[in-house]
Fold this protein.
Amino acid sequence: MTTTARLHIDVHLPADHAQRALRADVIAGLSERPRTLPPKWFYDKVGSDLFTEITRLPEYYPTRAEREILQQRADAIAFHTGAATVIELGSGSSEKTRLLLDALTRNGTLRRYVPVDVSADALTDAANSLFGDYPNLTVHGVVADFTEHLHLLPDSPGPRLMVFLGGTIGNLEPTERAAFLRGMRDSLRPGDHLLLGTDLVKSPSVLVPAYDDAAGVTARFNRNVLAVINRELDADFDVDAFEHVAIWDDREQWIEMRLRARGPQNVYIADLDLRVALADGEEIRTEISAKFTPDRVRAELGTAGLGVRHWWTDTAGRFALSLSGR
Ligand code: SAH
Ligand code: AVI
């Protein structure tokens, strides 16, 4: 643990955890058909910075839409929850979270902020900057995988508000998502709340450009996963030989990001002694980003044992925040 008086950072991942998990994911994902890689490996320092760039793109509306809701509703959220602790999963830069921290400070209840992220770089930068700006707040950052390590979160004063913003819930596969919602519910005590950000189903003419922007930032973000594998597992992907693909799958109601081989690619992953031969045009699925109807959000939360108490959208109805409890 790294500690100063009000700033703690716990690393719950053993030094070799990321390496071991990445190896297992690459072996499993590149051996199956269709080939897949999990999106959590996008977020090294370069990938986290590219994501921040994405959030500022004209086509990428989710961050702006969610910020608009928080600007309008943060005081109501503070009033309804009276939270002493905010636990945020996949906190990234924690930028929008400041709106909640400000409202809970005005509310006079906030004592602790627990950001949780798999990216030590993003977490450390965010925790350090919050530490300076909120003199009465204890910041207890946790480097962990939220799909595996919810039970390792530090005990914190209640009532607690767990927040999962940005629509990151949509990046989990449906079965993983159901287990994860249940896990979040199980880690709440009576009087605690969950604030969940979900992107809503809308026209593919809006959705697809959000994941295939004119400036090519999302393409660089997508390809970055290959650079991560090259560096971490001593592989030789020709990163620029892969085309960025974003499609709307109407049946599944999700955006799928893929990397498509331009010409046959013979890749050697030295640390795994694994050879991968990709045919011309063959694709690797790198992310799903599910979009929801209001009914589906309520149904999935209900199945996990969570009842929606408040539901807010931005004025254009693109994105929703739900506040639920057990
Ligand atoms: N919540 C922020 C950041 C979203 S980007 C926002 O709304 O803008 C998604 C964040 O989740 C990244 O910082 C990434 O590192 C983190 N993340 C992705 N998968 C994760 C996992 N399995 N465990 C912990 N953090 C994860
Ligand atoms: C973090 N997550 C919610 C983003 C999304 O919209 O699914 C990741 C992203 N992928 C491409 N652009 C942004």
Q: What stands out?
A: The chain has a mean pLDDT of 95. The CA atoms of residues 46 and 251 lie 33 Å apart. The longest strand covers residues 242-249.
